[in-house]
Fold these 2 entries.
Entry 1:
Amino acid sequence: MIANKYRLAAAKSMFERPQGEDSLEPKRIVFLSTEGFLTERCYFRNLDYYLRQNKSQVQIHVLCHRNDGRSSPRQVLDLLSECKEIQEKGVLPFDAMNEIQKHFEEEEIDKILSNDSSIPQERRKLFRTMLLKLGIDYDYRCFLKDRDEHSDTFAVVLDRDQKSHEMEELEYVWSKCKEHGFGFYITNPCFEFWLFLHLWDGTPLPEDEREKMLDNPKVSNQHTYMSRLLGEMVHHAKKIGKEDFGKYYYGNIRKAIVNSSSFATEITSILVELGTNLGDLLSYCLDSQ
């Protein structure tokens, strides 16, 4: 069996079909591949929930692997690339075809993919079961294939994380994003700085405080300087629940966007200075109709 390398999966209920007269099919979907396993995903999934509650025509899909733990900048990019390739090349991954063809003839595969009613239900079920074992989320891939790629946005969300990421690695990912038309959003030093901007009252920060934020040293077994600072302002774990998101963040997003202008907002500057360009992404999510 082939390795479960980059097998795109959707979050549970991510692409529910709208129901009811007041439901809207989203005009635009923002597909995000994030570096962080918990905080970033929770933030953007909760944002998607609130946007849907407010009948927004923009949805946010936070992509994930069937087998998580793949969070280097290049792996974050690879996941987004796989998502995009489905729209361009087809539902089934090319490198999985040899394994699939051990059990299904090419003609039968084509008929299943085209929903040909001549294929017995048990064969369809076997096909889906086999793909699932390979780590291939067939339903979500079909959903992606049917999307109009020109109406959607694809982007990576990364931390600068100077202690873990080499500059060359980030510059490579940035160049590939520009090449493929992907958004490249980065926060220095980490996503917690973006969360901090939702709560900061705008009082000028002393230079030594800015330096501590940028250096972001580890201050305990559980916290860096930024995560502890954020923890003193809010009281939630890395996994942000809907209630906490609504309490601390959702109503303060535009405040965070304004606050971000007090720091670096251009990618070349963010790579070496305290800052973020996530304000651009959030402005798009809130204002794009």
Entry 2:
Amino acid sequence: MPVDIEALYPKLIHLMLDTVFVVDRDSRIVFVSDACEGLLGYRAEELVGRSITDLMHPDCLENTQASIARVMSGHPHTDFHNRYIRKDGSIVDILWSARWSEEDQVRIGVARDVTALRQAEEALRFLAHHDSLTGLTNRSLFSDRLESALLAARRYQSGLALLFLDVDEFKSINDSHGHAVGDRVLCTIARRLEGCVRETDTVARLGGDEFVVLLTDIQSAEAVAAKLDEITAAVSAPLGPGFDGMRAVSCSAGVAQYPTDGENAERLMRHADEAMYRRKGRRSSSG
């Protein structure tokens, strides 16, 4: 007996892991496959008759309307991404393939959940520009921000400052308490540095126990000195619970201010670095 393929189509559609939507000219859902419950949390009977745009994340509505217009003009869209709000209120990232059926006067779309993929991509992008231990800006992104800040300072004749910080005797912390504790100390310092600056400033970890702070739109040496005092005091505060009575850490810091100490990134970095090592040397000789 020959197989009636057309009779199998509904069963095949409901077996698909991706969700099939059929939507009329007015964006009303006329059919949705069973996979929708896994995608959006709704059973098919809860969605038929509803406008599909009601389920979209508001931030995606404008771009989605443009995609709908494209599809309805006869141009399939096979790689469109947007976000929907699930029944439980959570957000799902969806990759769509859609086309318009002129004969049936409906849009046919296949939706795939790519939330995990998007999250993985975002994590990789974050790691490319941030320190894996502390989550601070890394050297690469910091260099870009410094160049952008210098361009703005030249254009608007404003000031900026670099603060180089190195944790004093950090090797002895690792040797005495282990690298895991040393890592926790670095993370604690990172959070304290972030708490001392504005959103327009940047805190970065250059590697090891070296940090740098970029202060933008700061005009006077007095303002820079006050910020440095605030930062060194924050770093030197007691480490608190979980550090088994460890003594507070301290840091050596060097400062470079634009344009007084240099007019480009290389000179400013070198000036601040050298100033930090001179200060560390004085600490060592006086200790």
